[in-house]
Amino acid sequence: MAYKYSKTISLLIGISILDNDLSSLKKRNNIILIYMNETVAYKRSPAVRCWIRNLLDGKPVENQNLLYTIFGEIRRTRLVGTIIDKREILSTQLENENDFLEDPDGTKVRLEFDFDDGTGMIRLNIWEANPEDFEHINRGDLVKVVGLINLWKGFRSVNAEIVKKIDNPNYLLLNDAEIIKKIKFGETEEIPETSEDNLDLDEIPDDFNIDELFSEDEKEEKNTPKEKIYKIIEEHTLEGKGISFDDLLSKVKFSEEKVKHLIRDLEIESRIYQSDKNIYQTYY
Prior knowledge:
alpha+beta; CATH 2.40.50.140; Arc Repressor Mutant, subunit A; 3 domains; three-stranded antiparallel sheet
């Protein structure tokens, strides 16, 4: 959808006009004010109201920061949910200096919120943030969010443009009702297939080695600390028990803080969840 804004450009043009050129004007230098109207269209994607689960289930187009969902294409979203955690990321914590922009005082700051609406969890990013502007937003607060989809290396997050605290808890129910209404009245679409979905297995040679599909970096990624944590939780889930944080901590050589961080990342990626009995399990 394109929203149009009109702006008037005023050009003040000084011209000298003689009587014998234009008899309607007096014989002297004249300044004529000419107004020219120009309409310029600025494209701004609409903020689509949905659940976090719709974003997690959507099919990504990474080079466009776009998700295909049951509510159509989503570049900008509108969400309502609860802040689960809040972090300030400073320059000393950065691994890639190109990922962050400097504030005027030279400090590189990004705010991160772990955000849950009951259907899933996603990360909110606020770039070039002034932490003082968000002192009133804390863990456990109900907020409404408007932001742009951000896709990076397979990870989904939202670059928040608006984060507003909500005092009335019924607002969450109202938001859910609006989404349910769209689904009930058929305001949904089929998620289109991608080229990967259309891969014809019959065209794959018999001597094809699937390991060749993966680079060395991808193979190494399977041995990262996060994947080791996931593997342990997965094994205990398949046994029908899950695993507690203390038991998990005893099985790895990582610090308690690092394990908490890795667990949080897995929760945001909707790969694991914590049950009421403080047991971690995988979704599948």
